[in-house]
Amino acid sequence: MHLGPTEIGAVGLSEQEAKAAGRRIKVGKFPYSYSGAAQAMGKGDGFAKVIGDSETGEILGVHIVGEHATDLIGESVMAMTLESAVEDLAEVIKPHPTLSENLMEAAKDWSGVAVHAPKKR
Questions:
Q1: Averaged pLDDT of the chain
Q2: Which residue of 2, 51, 82, 93 pairs with 61 in a disulfide if CB–CB is 3.0 to 4.6 A?
Q3: Cα–Cα distance measured from residue 35 to residue 64, given in angstroms and rounded to the nearest whole number
């Protein structure tokens, strides 16, 4: 049963925009369905996605679709304003279980080391 609109929080470029701008990118993505907090809330639909320059690690865009996305995007805005790298987002310590972990996990997935997701091959 769908109880309301899906929240969307986004900052920066989409994958398509980054590619069109000639940027070489990597993408990290973490589904809400892997999140213990989202599961406990019964809100497993959605994802957090980080788009970063594959050579420099510059954060080019972050997109969050799902529960509390509009609350969670602020950290990414601050990280981009401070010119942080994707690796910086991956190293931020998060309480567990919380939805805020989803952004950290997406950043870790960018490097192929997400903790609460199946290993990339």
A1: 93
A2: 51
A3: 13
What does the pLDDT look like over 29-62, one tens digit per residue? Answer: 999 999 999 999 999 999 999 999 999 999 999 9
Q: Please, are residues 93 and 68 in contact by the beta-carbon 8 Å criterion? A: no
Please give the structure tokens belonging to residue 54: 């594959």
CA neighbours within 13 Å on the CB side: how many for 57?
13
Active site residue 68: no
Coil vs helix vs strand at 58: strand
Predicted confidence (pLDDT) at residue 9 exceeds the cutoff of 90: yes
Report residue 18 as tokens: 């980054």
Give this prediction's pTM.
Answer: 0.92
Question: Of the listed 2, 68, 96, 116, which one is catalytic?
Answer: 96
